[in-house]
Design goal:
Elements: E1 4-6, E2 18-20, H1 54-59, H2 61-98, H3 103-123
Parallel strand pairs: 1-2
Helix pairs in contact: 2-3
Length: 144
C-alpha cells in the first residue's frame, strides 16, 4: 500500500491512503507516545526533581543510597541467575530420568524468575520498591 503525503487537502482527492502534511503546525503524536510514555524531549517535564541543579543531585543522599542498593541488587540478580540455571538443568534431568515434570522444581523456577523480574524492574527505575532482602518479600512460586 502506498501512502501519499500532500501539502493541501485538495491534493488528496478523497483517497483513504493520503496523509496531509502541514509543515507549519506539525504536532503529530503516535499512540505509543502517551502521557505514560512521553516523547524524549518531554520525558522529564513533570519530574519534580528534574529542576534541581546538578550539585544538589550529586549531594543527595537518596541518589547515592539508590546506587548502593542497585549494586547490591546487581550482585543478587547474578546469584539468582546462577541458581536459576541450576534449577533449569535439574528440571531437565528430572524430566529426562522420570518422564514427568517435578512440581517443586517448577515452583522454584517460577519463584526465581519472579525474583529476577523484580530486581530488573528496580534496576531499570520502573519501581522504587526494593527487592528481597533489601526491603521486599520473596516472591511466591505459584504458577497460576
Amino acid at each position: 500500500m502506498d501512502i501519499w503525503l500532500v501539502e493541501k487537502v485538495e491534493d488528496c482527492n478523497n483517497r483513504p491512503d493520503c496523509l496531509l502534511l502541514d509543515l507549519n503546525s506539525f504536532a503529530y503524536r503516535s499512540k505509543a507516545m502517551t502521557d505514560q510514555n512521553p516523547t524524549v524531549d518531554h520525558a522529564f517535564a513533570d519530574d519534580a526533581g528534574s529542576n534541581r541543579p546538578l550539585e544538589e543531585n550529586l549531594k543527595s543522599k537518596g541518589t547515592w543510597t539508590r546506587l548502593l542498593f542497585m549494586l547490591i541488587s546487581y550482585v543478587l540478580v547474578s546469584i539468582a541467575s546462577f541458581v536459576g540455571t541450576f534449577v533449569v538443568v535439574l528440571g531437565f534431568l528430572w524430566l529426562l530420568f522420570t518422564g514427568e515434570v517435578n512440581r517443586q522444581i517448577q515452583q522454584a523456577g517460577q519463584s526465581i524468575a519472579a525474583y529476577i523480574y523484580e530486581i530488573i524492574r528496580y534496576l531499570t527505575f520502573n519501581t522504587d520498591e526494593r527487592p528481597f532482602p533489601l526491603g521486599g518479600d520473596w516472591p511466591s512460586g505459584s504458577t497460576d
